[in-house]
Amino acid sequence: MQLTYRLLLLFVLSLAAFGQQARVLGTVQSAVPTLQVKTDQGQVLEVALAEKATIRKVAPGAKDLSGAQTVSVDDLASGDRVLLRGALNGAAFSAESIILMSSREIAQKNQAETAEWTKRGISGLVDKVDAATNEITVIVRGPEGPKPAKVTVSEKTDIKRYAKDSVKYSSAQPSKLAEVKKGDQLRAMGVKSEDGATVAAERIIYGTFKSAAGVITAINAETKEVTVKDWQNEKPVFIQLSAETTVKKMPAMGGMGMGMGMGRPPGMGPGGPGGPGGPPPGAAGGAGSGRGGGPGGPGMGGMRPGGFDPTQMIERLPVASFADLAVGDTIMIASTPTDKPDRLVAITVVGGAERILTMLTMQAQAGAGATGGPPGGMRGGGMGGGMGGLDAIMGMPGIQ
Fold first, then answer.
1. 30-77: per-residue pLDDT in tens?
2. If residue 129 lies in a helix (H) or strand (E), which one and from where to where?
3. Which residues contact 147 (CB under 8 A, 6 or more apart)?
4. pTM higher than 0.70 for the full model?
5. Which of 156, 173, 207 is the last residue of a domain?
6. Which of 28, 175, 273, 363 has the most CB within a 10 Å radius?
7. Burial class (CB in 10 A: 0-12, 13-18, 19+), 165
């Protein structure tokens, strides 16, 4: 009996020496000279191919291996998604099989899906949900400002909600019309009318997000946390960036800022809201500069204040990095809400946002002048959240 126990113990120890059998999902960090994979939990593994190891490539979104192609290790590249199967021993992984999803093909698929959602869909804030008629009223931000659109839902409509811990479309959870509520950000894609006023939805993705804007006062590069002076109430807001955060930045325009009515938003001086400066030349309500004008003036390089779509502008901005953010920069943030109102987890950060905020303010002022009422989405003399504010512009993550 004692001999049998010792033999069993030696067998278990020998298995441990060769590593534990494991399945690991991660992203290729480097393919040459050695294969390194960063797991979704953050560990970096050195991967070696076991004898007779197989590498098979599947198309993005594939549910099984029926269409998999056998490839070689030379087909692996940085950024590829992989599922490893084999023996794990600390940070060393002996792979018996690798399932590959190419980052290039993932990017192509994402671009194609984004183009389809843009062409056949709308996005905005939910204003009303009518269960009786299976309709959702969404406030859409367009070149002429916010306007309502109707989204009709059928039993065939695929409805998903963003997961609390992820803004990836692939991680969204199945949902239903009864769970959609006023104030949610929503994208709908399907048969859209020519004027974009109605969409018979085939697919819907929605979630609850929060937006903010302000001037960066501090940056912690180690923790990737940015402190912002909120331009609504001048209080500090702490923004946490993560690996899933998308950073974009408006390109520099040299001396085209204040001289073209594109400097700080009215009421935002060098130190934030309420600082010196007042309305920039050419802004509605300000002194004419010969370039700007009032509500019908050219604005930015001939662009009327009511003639731009901020959502499309932000989506088309080039991707930047955390290192491109600097103290003193004005940013706009879309985030997931937390239990603490002064702490946000960023989905999207747009740097160099003064010009966008100025155009939004001019657009809102132009709308007020046309209707004689307060600009939609304006609070406290600035561009706030709500149905016509930042939430309608910054609230939704891109399709990824």
1. 988 889 999 988 899 999 999 899 999 999 878 888 889 999 999 999
2. strand 121-130
3. 139, 140
4. no
5. 207
6. 363
7. exposed
